[in-house]
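Usage

Read records sequentially. Each one opens with the input sequence:
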Amino acid sequence: MVITDRDGGIVAAVELDDCSHQASHRQRRDLLLEEVLRQADIPLLRSKDEGVLVANVQTFLATVEQRQNV
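and closes with the structure output:
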């Protein structure tokens, strides 16, 4: 999933790592995704725990909102 701003610009990517991420083809895909996002300077918010991921997204969005209000 991606988080966008009001203009449609990508602010971050979000991924919940379920058990499928243990497969070798998924690990290769994850490495590619990480590199593409790094080169595009797009943060990747990722966790194996849904609750942790939700908290990380909320914290990230609060930080982005705070920066925009400065």
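Summary fields computed downstream for this record:
- The helical segments are 24-39, 50-68.
- The mean pLDDT is 91.
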